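Running this now, will post back.
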Amino acid sequence: MTGAVGTTADSEMRARLFAELERVVALGLSDSSERQKQLLRFLVTEEIEGRGDRLKAYAIATRVFDRPADFDAQQDAIVRVEVGRLRKSLDLYFATSGAADDIRVVIDKGGYRPRFEFRAEVATQTPPSEETHRPRRSPKTRWPTLAAVAVACVILGLWGWRYFVQPMRAGPRIAVAPFTLSADRDGQNYIGVGLRAEFVSVLSEFDWLTVFPLTRRVDPAALSKKKKSKIDYLLKASVQVAGDSVVVTPLLLDAETGALRWSKRYETSLKASEMLAMERDIAARVAADVGQPFGVVANIELTRIDADAFNGDEAYRCHLRAIQFWSSYRRDDFAPARQCADRLAAGGDANVQAMRAILLLDAARLDYDSRPRAQILAEASALAADAYRRSDKAALPRAARYSTALCQGEIEIFKRVGLAAVRDYPNNPATLLDVGAKLALGAGDWDHGVELVARARALSDQISNWFEFADVVDAIRRNAEADTDGLHAAALDSAHPLLLVVDAALQSRLHNEDARRAAMSALAAAGYDGPLAIAALIERQCWTSAAKSALAGRLTADAGGQSSAPH
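Update: finished.
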């Protein structure tokens, strides 16, 4: 029997339902957050008390998650995300430890109202509610299906319990190694870089996975044995380009043993639609392989909206060139990406407009455009606002909008859009790092920003290195110790100007003269030679004066032969 139980239910039935609620909280949500337990109690209590029809996103957000009266579910996905997690926890509990429970609590996809399913042997004792919001299903067909699910779950029950019922906890950890590229023409390295970035992006959409790119200097075998940064799977791929033909061969390896778990060969042409389909197919299959017994969730990716897709082959090629530039911020890679994006300006593609906005921000920050900085930022802001109006859920327009808002001093817009991205992708290290770094360095919210960076580091300490120095700047600012393992190698490896500046300031503070000189030499090679050039680079960033002075003060003190900490 299914259905809501309202105020007409007798006291015995109400007592049974409340007892089952507390049983699920104690056993099914034992490792979950207090917020998840509070959410389940609220939903079930409202249904039992006959107020289930009032369970809308607004009511849940304001009464459970302390959202303000102007809460907008279109801008803040907290309810959808948290109810989705709760639904997974309930499904797992009732398919494993709670399979023998007399009463089963179900929250159907697409809604927030719970309903109650009763075992066949007690159905005659339980009169149905007058208000049912779900057709009745026969126990004869329901329980064999549930038993089959239970058998599948038992196979990997412990694995599933560990990774699915604990919100905000890292799931299986997949490190994506640099792809090997073989091309018959020069200048096509951006294809391999772009494919790898797309793999990481697509796999990160699955919230039970932790996915991060691996730097060239990291030994995966050694990393798999470290408790903090342990990885479960290593994803490699070879990319062969001949004419307009692309062959991609990904390999999924067990990180600890090196055993091959999955591989497949994909052949396609250099067309945006085919490449995107290929990449997302790989991501869905990998997720199905490592995510059992919930492999069916891979279908989420196959039915995902096309918000992040570019319109046409040329737009996608431009995006790959932009990714090539963003991988190191080299001056030589900037012009091709900028020119390519500008050629497509009239197409009305939200992703292209967002890409242009972010490239303009980079031009202003790194002095790659000779126009006045204020003029560049104003143009970037207009492009980002237009892209966000066209597509406010896609990743690139979101990043462009909150980044340009920060540079224009629109802190409230930055926080609203940026924190919405964090709520939508709470286990995506790149999102946590980017928003966290900007919160600390640009908005001056050091505690919250560094906390997001710490959460990202907890998911992985081998993610994109150019995002992870906000906590290092905070430590320099406070003259405190910082977690800098691998920072110097990452700075030299990427040659990212800002990472090199941070590294030079840190090495100066630690009195590591050889390391400081190496960072300064790399900065000079990148076009920032001497104290004045470096000071100008720092000043162009969309950072607070505290963040700027932390670095500039340290480097100025060093240039003057002083060894004191920055003020």
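The CA atoms of residues 140 and 339 lie 64 Å apart. More later if anyone needs it.
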